[in-house]
Amino acid sequence: MWTVSVTGGLTRVVLQERPGAAVRLYCLPPAGAGAGFFAPWVGLVPAWVEVCSVSTPGRGPRLEEPSLTDTAAVAALVAETVDDTADPRPFAVFGHSVGALVAFEAVRNLRASGGRPPLWVGLSSLRGPQDGAYAKGLLPLLTGGLEGLGQLVGGAIPQRLLREPVLMAAACTPLLADCLLLLHHRHRDEPPLEVPLALYGGAQDPTTSVRQLLGWNELFSTPAQPRLFEGGHMYMHGQAEALVTQVVADLGSVVRKAVSAA
Fold this sequence. Notes:
Helices cover 39% and strands 16% of the residues.
């Protein structure tokens, strides 16, 4: 049973309540997706992890609302959501694709506003934002017809959508809105984030190479070596169990260090 609460324009979604869990893991979805993208994770994480997400306008049950395309505004709302003053438990943040950028900017926002930092940040299937990276990477896909669109969604476009323009528009609008969010992003030089980092990606991802994943290390004080899984940009569809096992192991090592230092 999901529980939701609206915070500053975003909906916090607890995919399964675990009040006894030691850590809340906030999972930020890829372009066009909603909080339900991470529902399969609930049955894969141990009892000490409570999986949460956010539901943003323009997708899922909020499909009729206009999407948000200002990176700074979305990051500020996510920061407000994950730093829940009513819940003293530590939290961690995982972001896939565009969710990785939102996660990164939300943590920067928390630092600037004096909020609680996360215990850990996991970033998946997105290059670092330096040097106008998203304009360089996205524009060829956005102008690449169905092949480019297929790379954005991680697979071929279903024929049913191609035959129904109204359905196609409904499916693509939140995806394109999140592409605009990436294109609107302007990177700022700031000191590295002092938060443990983990990086993940698909070994055959045509949109994000290992070298591009490594770009995130310039923005954190604790560099990470990318962990790769078989598959493309949406590798987690076929590698959910392997990915979650690795995420739990990486997060668990940080949690153990925090407990022993307390």
